[in-house]
Design goal:
Length: about 300
């Protein structure tokens, strides 16, 4: 697999599907790569959590969580441990977040009461460490160092907090002018200099994380009741986004935004899209999971699905 140091316009434009997994029993809700291990985890509407080796493109393990469901998911520091949010019993005082060991299919800890607020947790204890009451349905992201977190609120307001003194309030607030749609996803670039916002009306914005200035925006085709995801490459030089027309777009953002790639996803409208932290590879998902790598690596492209 090509290392990240070799990313270029040509290589990004040459990405093609290398593997497809179409045995899911519903829409894939979320996917995440581990930061240092070549692993990927997915959560699905069929209440499954699935674990993949991305170098061999093999499914390693599947577990089902019928009691709580599996909505959002992300790796922790450990390659066999994840945080998974629940889909069911959210109106009661049940376990809305679970710390799961994929190694032995065990719940290590429950985090209860995560509703109607932004809450801070420590993996080592099940007591909430802090809480922010904010209007609407806020979307939250940490920078890669864990020093700053951003909260996107209704009306296009972005608030930045110091994670060590969040109780003092945001140290900066700025507005994404002209778009009042709900922000459904927010990401920091690895260097912490940029933020990527995706809204429910399929607009993608690139912001200066220090001053809140809008560097550029991309309007993707809409699709009824479907939201897309956009992602940085780990070097921060490229942005990829899904679109309501079933395509995946890529731009070089190192200077003036320049489109370098556009592909048919072959799996419908990609609602999940992430670039691997250490590889020239990304994953896209609907109810089908696809792995993409540069076609020049020698592997023939996978035959697209005839139906999605």
């Amino acid at each position: 697999m090509t290392p990240l140091s070799h990313l270029s316009d040509h290589l990004v434009a040459d990405m093609s599907i290398s593997a497809l997994f179409n045995d899911f029993g519903g829409k894939i809700n979320c996917l995440d790569f581990h930061r240092t291990a070549d692993l990927l985890v997915t959560s699905c509407e069929d209440d499954s959590v699935r674990f993949y080796d991305i170098t061999s493109a093999k499914l390693l393990k599947t577990t089902y969580h019928k009691k709580h469901g599996a909505d959002r998911i992300c790796f922790t520091h450990h390659p066999s441990a994840v945080i998974c949010s629940s889909k069911y019993s959210l109106d009661s005082d049940e376990e809305s977040l679970r710390y799961l060991s994929m190694y032995d299919n065990r719940c290590l800890r429950y985090f209860k009461g995560h509703k109607g607020s932004v809450r801070m947790w420590d993996l080592r204890v099940n007591v909430c460490q802090g809480m922010l009451h904010l209007r609407g349905r806020p979307t939250v992201a940490y920078d890669q160092q864990g020093l700053v977190f951003a909260v996107a609120m209704e009306g296009g307001a972005i608030k930045l907090f110091d994670s060590r003194s969040y109780d003092k309030g945001p140290f900066d607030t700025f507005l994404v002018g002209g778009d009042t749609a709900e922000v459904c996803d927010i990401k920091f670039s690895n260097d912490g200099k940029s933020m990527l916002l995706t809204t429910t009306n399929n607009h993608v914005y690139l912001l200066d994380a220090y001053h809140g200035e809008k560097k550029c925006g991309f309007s993707m085709d809409s699709s009824a009741n479907v939201t897309i995801e956009a992602t940085f490459t780990p070097d921060g030089q490229y942005v990829l986004s899904g679109s309501g027309d079933g395509k995946i777009h890529a731009w070089n953002i190192s200077d003036e935004p320049n489109k370098v790639g556009c592909w048919d996803s072959y799996i419908g409208v990609p609602t999940c899209l992430r670039w691997a932290p250490r590889r020239a590879m990304f994953a896209a998902a609907t109810s089908v999971l696809s792995f993409w790598i540069p076609s020049e690596e020698g592997k023939p492209p996978v035959e697209p699905l005839s139906e999605t």
